[in-house]
Design brief:
4-stranded antiparallel β-sheet; 11 strands; 2 domains; Jelly Rolls; alpha+beta; globular; Arc Repressor Mutant, subunit A; single chain
């Protein structure tokens, strides 16, 4: 469990469930009777099309919540979640959450902030479809959580699924960004060297044709 994790109260007196890599935590279009707190591991949230195609929304790390948006609005889940690594996860019901809110009165505001972040992430995927590939990749990288070692844990395939481009395109763009000094790539990792430059790329005006 990450240190200084504001969601630690959710796991108090609870025994996390162990999920193996590839095991689903919840499925798209199912009833959201609970949401989940990741104690350890990495989880992929993604959308599924009737054709079978998938679109990765984001990769969640230990200390984050998943499935909370549908839980609060009571509508069927709009995405699925699957364990990428072995994960320890705590399920949170409405009754348990109400009890935690009574004991930790500052936590509801933190929950609202987290929900706002989730909405912002979804908006990135909607309007990101109008961006050029390098801007879409840069924007996605800026949304990923930074681990304690300062790295982002992601593969070229995961980035490609998330922004809707091929692995070849991801490799090309990352190579260009690395040569520009914006980032540094490693095995299944990326280190952002210049977040301001990446943000400027995302918000730069489109080139005239």
């Amino acid at each position: 469990m990450p240190q200084n994790d504001i969601w630690q109260p959710l796991a108090q007196a609870q025994s996390p469930k162990r999920y193996q890599p590839g095991q689903f935590i919840y499925l798209q279009d199912t009833a959201p009777t609970q949401f989940f707190y990741i104690v350890a591991g990495r989880v992929k949230c993604f959308l599924s099309a009737p054709s079978g195609a998938e679109r990765t929304l984001t990769i969640h790390q230990a200390g984050e919540l998943i499935g909370e948006a549908s839980f609060f609005d009571g509508q069927p889940r709009v995405s699925s979640a699957v364990a990428l690594t072995a994960c320890d996860i705590v399920a949170v019901s409405r009754e348990r959450l109400e009890d935690i809110f009574r004991r930790y009165p500052d936590l509801p505001f933190s929950m609202l902030q987290y929900l706002a972040k989730t909405v912002r992430l979804l908006s990135v995927h909607v309007d990101g479809a109008f961006l050029r590939a390098d801007r879409r990749i840069a924007r996605y990288l800026l949304t990923l959580p930074v681990e304690k070692n300062g790295l982002l844990s992601c593969t070229h395939e995961e980035i490609g699924f998330a922004v809707g481009v091929s692995r070849v395109t991801v490799s090309r763009v990352l190579g260009e960004l690395e040569r520009a000094g914006f980032l540094e790539t490693g095995y299944r990792t990326i280190r952002l060297l210049d977040r301001k430059a990446l943000d400027a790329l995302v918000h730069s005006l489109p080139e005239e044709s």
